[in-house]
Design brief:
This protein is an alpha+beta fold. It has three domains: about 150 residues, Glucose Permease (Domain IIA) (Distorted Sandwich); about 100 residues, Roll (Nuclear Transport Factor 2, Chain: A), CATH 3.10.450.350; about 140 residues, Nuclear Transport Factor 2, Chain: A. Helix content is about 15%, strand content about 30%. The strands form five sheets. Strands 11, 14, 16, 17, 18, 20, 22 and 23 form an eight-stranded antiparallel sheet that branches. Strand 7 and strand 8 form a beta hairpin. Helix 1 packs antiparallel against helix 7, helix 4 crosses helix 5 and helix 6 packs across helix 7. The radius of gyration is 23 Å and the shape is globular. Bound molecules: zinc ion. Zinc ion (ZN) binds next to loops.
Length: about 475
C-alpha cells in the first residue's frame, strides 16, 4: 500500500480517473445501533463471531445459555437460498416505502408490485405499506436485473413479527411470520486495563456490539478510543434476546450505563417517550446526544489542526489550513457527523475524493482524501448521523492516509469555513419535554435500579413494563 501519495500534486492530481468503487462486503446500515445488531448477526453466521459461539456465562448467571445460534433468526431473509445481491437497511426519517426502495435502486414498477403483494398477502391491520416508520428494517435480495426476489421486513421495536415477500413462479407473494424472542437483561460491570474493548471481552459479553454502543451513548463525554484510562470502571444493563431454542440471538438496547473515570463519572439512561421517540439522557433528563458527532471517524491522532497559518509539507510554504486532519489507516470508516443531504461526491482538486453534506441550521461538512465512497452514495441522498459515507485514503494532495475535515457555518447567508471544535463537541442538552417528565423519572428509576444489581444478574423479572401513556 502506497502511504505517501506524492503522485497527486496539483499538476498530477487529474491523473487517473477515480477508481471504480469497490463493493463493500456488507450492506450499508445507516441506523446507529441497529447497525451493530446486524453486524453481530452477520459475523455470527459467517463464523467470525467467536464471542457469540464461545458465549461465556458471567458470574451468577442462573441459566446456562446454549452456545448454538439460531441462524434462521439472525439472518432470516433466506440469504442462503436466494441468489442475488443482498441489501439491508432502515427506513429513514420521513421516508415512505417507495422512497426507501427507490433509494436502494429498485425500479418504481418493482416497488409497485411489491406493495401490491404486501397488500394482498398481509392484513392491513398487521402491516399497512403506507404506514412505515423510521427505523423499520428491511433486507432485500435482488437479482442482476434489480428484480426483487426476497424481502424481509421487521417493524422497529417489534421483535415478534416479520413480513416476508418471496417471488414464487415469477409472482411476489407476501406472508406474516412470528418470531418468538425471549428478552432478558443482564447487568455487566468491568474495569479497564488497557482498552474498553478488552475490558468488555473480559466480561464475557461481545464487544463488537457493546463497545460501539457505549461509545455512542457517551459520545460527548468520553473518547473511548483515546481517553480510556487504566482503572476506569463501567457498568451497564443490556437486553439480550433469545430464540425458541433458548439460543442467544442478539443484543437489544443498553437500558442504563455508567462510567467512572479518574476525575469524572457519567450516567446515562435510555428513555422511550410515549411517542416512541428514544434517546439517552442523564439523570436530570438532559439529552446526551448532540446535533453533531464529536468526530467523523476513529482516528489515530489529529495530524493538523484548524489554523490560519501552517507550513505545508508538500508545498513547502505557509498557507492557512481551514480544516482538521485526522490521521487514520486507509479504509477507516468516515461518518456523517449529523443528519443531512449529500451535496457533493467526487474529485475536488487537492482534496481528492471528496464528499460534502449539508445539514440543518446552516451547517455543511466536507470529507476529503477518501479512498472510496460508501456504496451507491450520490448527490441528493439523505444520510443519517454516524452513517458511513466513505473510507479514509490519501487521494489528492496528501502525504499519507488521513481525513481532511471541513466544517462550514453560515455567515451572512454564505457558507464559511469555521473551526469545528468551537461549534461541535457538545450535546444539545435538550431536556425531556415537561409533559413527559414524570414518565421519564419512572423509567429512569427502574433502569438505574437494575444497574444497582450484582454483576451478572439476570433481571428478566424486573424488566420495566412502562405504561405507554404519560400521566
Ligand atoms: Zn487537511
Amino acid at each position: 500500500m502506497q502511504m505517501y501519495d506524492y503522485s497527486s500534486l496539483p499538476s498530477a492530481s487529474e491523473q487517473g480517473k477515480p477508481r471504480k468503487q469497490r463493493k463493500p462486503r456488507k450492506p450499508r446500515k445507516p441506523r446507529r445501533w441497529f447497525f451493530f445488531l446486524t453486524l453481530i448477526g452477520v459475523s455470527v453466521l459467517f463464523g467470525l463471531g467467536n464471542e457469540a459461539t464461545e458465549y461465556k456465562p458471567v458470574v451468577e448467571l442462573k441459566k446456562k445459555v446454549s452456545a448454538s445460534v439460531d441462524a434462521e433468526l439472525i439472518l432470516p431473509f433466506a440469504a442462503q437460498k436466494a441468489e442475488g445481491t443482498k441489501i439491508s437497511g432502515y427506513i429513514a426519517r420521513n421516508e415512505n416505502l417507495t422512497d426507501t426502495f427507490i433509494r436502494e435502486g429498485i425500479s418504481r414498477t418493482e416497488v409497485r408490485q411489491l406493495i401490491g403483494a404486501l397488500r394482498k398477502g398481509i392484513p392491513r391491520a398487521s402491516f399497512n405499506p403506507n404506514v412505515v416508520r423510521q427505523g423499520d428494517r428491511y433486507a432485500l435480495v435482488i437479482d442482476s436485473q434489480s428484480a426483487i426476489q426476497h424481502l424481509e421486513y421487521t417493524k422497529r421495536g417489534d421483535r415478534e413479527t416479520r413480513f416476508v415477500v418471496e417471488r414464487i413462479d415469477g409472482v411476489l407473494k407476501a406472508r406474516q411470520e412470528n418470531l418468538p424472542l425471549r428478552r432478558e437483561a443482564i447487568v455487566v460491570f468491568g474495569r479497564v486495563k488497557d482498552t474498553i474493548w478488552n475490558a468488555l471481552r473480559e466480561t464475557g459479553e461481545n464487544p463488537a456490539f457493546l463497545c460501539d454502543k457505549l461509545e455512542y451513548i457517551f459520545e460527548y463525554y468520553i473518547d473511548f478510543y483515546n481517553d480510556c484510562r487504566k482503572g476506569d470502571e463501567f457498568g451497564f444493563v443490556v437486553e439480550k434476546l433469545y430464540g425458541k431454542s433458548g439460543a442467544f440471538v442478539r443484543y437489544g438496547d443498553i437500558l442504563s450505563a455508567q462510567y467512572k473515570g479518574g476525575k469524572e463519572s457519567f450516567q446515562a439512561v435510555l428513555y422511550i417517550d410515549p411517542d416512541s421517540k428514544d434517546g439517552y439522557y442523564d439523570s436530570d433528563g438532559r439529552s446526551l446526544q448532540g446535533l453533531f458527532l464529536r468526530k467523523p471517524l476513529n482516528f489515530t491522532r489529529i495530524s493538523s489542526k484548524y489554523a490560519s497559518r501552517r507550513f505545508h509539507p508538500i508545498l513547502k510554504r505557509y498557507i492557512p489550513h481551514h480544516g482538521v486532519d485526522y490521521a487514520a489507516p486507509t479504509g477507516t470508516k468516515v461518518w456523517a457527523i449529523a443528519d443531512g443531504t449529500v451535496s457533493f461526491v467526487g474529485r475536488k482538486g487537492p482534496l481528492g475524493h471528496y464528499i460534502e453534506v449539508e445539514h440543518n441550521n446552516g451547517y455543511k461538512t466536507g470529507y476529503g482524501h477518501l479512498s472510496r465512497y460508501a456504496r451507491g452514495l450520490k448527490r441528493g441522498q439523505r444520510v443519517k448521523q454516524k452513517q458511513t459515507i466513505g473510507y479514509v485514503g490519501a487521494t489528492g494532495r496528501a502525504t499519507g492516509p488521513h481525513l481532511h475535515f471541513n466544517f462550514y457555518a453560515t455567515v451572512n447567508g454564505k457558507y464559511k469555513l469555521t473551526n469545528p471544535t468551537r461549534a461541535i463537541n457538545r450535546p444539545t442538552g435538550r431536556p425531556v419535554p415537561a409533559k413527559y417528565m414524570a414518565h421519564f423519572r419512572r423509567q429512569r428509576d427502574q433502569h438505574f435500579a437494575l444497574l444497582g444489581r450484582a454483576n451478572g444478574s439476570i433481571v428478566t423479572a424486573a424488566l420495566p413494563t412502562v405504561p405507554t401513556v404519560a400521566e
